[in-house]
Amino acid sequence: MNAWRLAQQLVRIDSSNPGAQEDTIERYIKLLVEQRVSSMPACLVKHISIKEIEVFPARRNLNVTIAGYGSAPNLVYICHMDTVTLGEGWSTDTPTLGATVRENRLYGRGACDMKGGLACALSALFSLMDAMEHTGTQPERGFSLICTVDEEANMRGVEAAIDAGWVGTDEWVLDTEPTDNQIQVAHKGRTWFELDIKGVTAHASQPWEGADAVAATAEAISHIRRSIEALPHHADWAPRPLPLAWFKADTNPTLSRMHAPRGSICDWYLRQPRRRRK
After folding, report:
1. In this protein, which residues make up the domain named Peptidase M20 dimerisation (predicted)?
2. How far is Cα 275 from Cα 67, in angstroms, rounded to an integer?
3. Helix intervals (H) in the chain
4. Cα gap 256→125, rounded to integer Å
5. Which of 55, 65, 151, 190 has the fewest CB atoms within 10 Å, i.e. the most exposed one?
6. 248/155 Cα distance (integer angstroms)
7. Which domains does the chain have, with CATH numbers?
8. What's residue 99's pLDDT?
C-alpha cells in the first residue's frame, strides 16, 4: 500500500488526545490488516497474529506479529496513534484534518507526529506480507508492529505493551517518530515523580509555630536540581533538564503555612535530551 496515500487517510481520522482519541483509528488500522491477511494463503496466515489490549475504555493497543523461522529477536516497529489536540488557527486551505498536499508536503494534525511514520510502518508490514506471498514462506526474522495509545499524555499505552510482553529487552526496536531524516541510535529515558510536602498551619502573627511547605518545596527543588546537575554527563547527551510539570499550593494571606493538611505538590518530568552533533 502506498505510504503517502495511507498517511493522508490516517490524518483525516481525528485521534486527538485529549479529544476523539484512538478508537476510530485503531479500528481502521486493524481492518486494513485483517483485509490484507484475509487475502493470503492459510499456510502463511498461521504465522500471523493480531492482538489487542484495552488500555482504557475504547482505547486499545494493537499488535500485529509475523513469526520468523529463525532464532533472532524480532524487529519491532512501534508507533503511537494519538495526536495532540486539534488546536486553532488552521488555514482554510489546509484544514486541521484535511490531509492537504501542497508542493509535496502533507498538511494536517499529526502528519509529522506521527501518522507519517505510522503509515511507513504499516507499509513495511504490508511489504513483508507481499514478500511472504512471493516466497511462499515466513521471514527468517520475526516482525512486529505495535500501535499504542496515550503517547501524548501519560504513555500508558507503551507501558501496557511492555507489561503484556509485546516487546522485550532483546528485540530490535524502531520508533518511526520524526528525527529530521536522521537515524538515532539511542533514546532518552524518563523519570516522572511527585513530591508531596506537608507543613504546619500557623497564624501570620505567630509564624514561628508553623512550617512553610512552599519554602520547603523550594529548598527541595534546588537540592534535586543541584544533585542531578552533578551527575556525570554522557558524550552523546546534552545536560539533563528538570522541567517542573506543575506546582500546587493552597494559599491564605493570614497563614504562613500555605496548605492543610497537605502542603505543596509538584510534578516533575526528568528526561534526557539528545545532543546534536554538527
Report:
1. 185-227
2. 36
3. 3-11, 23-38, 42-45, 116-135, 156-163, 213-229
4. 61
5. 190
6. 23
7. 3-175 (3.40.630.10), 190-271 (3.30.70.360)
8. 96
Name beta bridge partners: 200.
211
How do 59-66 and 48-56 pair as beta strands?
antiparallel
DSSP letter at 189?
-
Res 89: pLDDT: 92
To the nearest 10 degrees (0 to 180), the angle between helices 116-135 and 23-38 is 10
Specify whether the CB–CB gap between 73 and 140 falls below 8 A.
Answer: no
Cell numbers for 224, please give them. 534535586
The owner of cell 503484556 is: 164
The CA-based angle 168-26-108, given to 5 degrees, is 110
Residue type (1 letter), 207: P
In contact, 263 and 197? CB cutoff 8 Å: yes
Q: Are 152 and 83 in contact (CB under 8 A)?
A: yes
For residue 258, the model assigns a pLDDT of: 38
What does the block give as the cell for 222? 534546588
**Positions in the chain short of pLDDT 70:** 1, 187-189, 238-247, 249-278
Q: Which strand (E) or helix (H) includes residue 62?
A: strand 59-66
177-212 burial code (b ≥16 CB/10 A, e <16): beeeeeeeeeeeeeeeeebebebebbeeeeeeebbb
Share of the chain above pLDDT 70, in %: 82
Name the residue with cell 526474522: 141
Q: What confidence score (pLDDT) does residue 9 get?
A: 97
- At residue 52, φ and ψ (nearest 5 deg) are -135, 150
